[in-house]
Design brief:
Structural class: alpha+beta
Shape: globular
Distance between the termini: 48 Å
Radius of gyration: 17 Å
Order of helices and strands: HEEEEEEEHEE
Number of helices: 2
Largest sheet: 4 strands, antiparallel
Number of strands: 9
């Protein structure tokens, strides 16, 4: 039986998803072109919220954070600092994910990943998690909630440039949580 905390958490996840759907469908700042908004909007698709994919973990910080150059979907590059790693288990499998900070020194963390659902149920190039210290830290640990995993904007519109998931964050396990693949054809897809 789910606790009321689980119910509250799931309701928050669903509310965030509804807000994103409304933004994509109706906002002038949507990453989709006008021709794909409103009634033409194909929607967004998600796995059901599952507390098994929500972790509260320490960040094992690297003693000397390395600068990492990440390629982008438009043959460009972006620079990050490898801040540390999260260690946890998914379906009995030990998993390690690197967490990156922007090169400009901001305190937030970017946790990109590709998993065994990629290219089938989820966006093939991977998904992202963004962690903000004031929102995602509790007693010095981070909330790593894969139910909040989202597709980069290039999954919806090829006009956007997105950083690719570094190979060190390609997982063998399936993360059946968060956003699924975009049900529509991305804008700018050449077919």
């Amino acid at each position: 039986m789910a606790s009321s905390d689980d119910d509250d958490w799931a309701a928050q996840v669903r509310a965030q998803r509804r807000a994103k759907t409304e933004h994509f469908r109706d906002s002038g700042r949507s990453p989709l072109p006008v021709s794909m908004r409103g009634d033409a909007f194909p929607g967004l698709d998600y796995f059901e919220p599952d507390p098994a994919y929500r972790f509260v973990l320490p960040l094992h910080e690297h003693d000397e954070p390395e600068t990492v150059t990440v390629e982008t979907t438009a043959d460009g590059e972006q620079t990050f600092r490898r801040a540390g790693e999260f260690r946890f288990e998914v379906d009995g499998e030990a998993v390690t994910l690197q967490a990156y900070r922007p090169a400009d020194g901001e305190d937030r963390l970017w946790v990109p990943f590709r998993d065994a659902t990629g290219g089938e149920e989820t966006y093939g190039a991977g998904r992202y998690l963004d962690l903000e210290p004031d929102r995602d830290r509790v007693d010095g640990e981070w909330i790593l909630d894969f139910n909040l995993a989202y597709n980069p904007t290039c999954a919806y519109n090829h006009a956007y440039e997105c950083p690719l998931v570094p190979g060190e964050n390609w997982l063998e396990v399936a993360i059946e949580a968060g956003e699924r693949d975009f049900p529509g054809e991305p804008a700018g897809a050449d077919h």
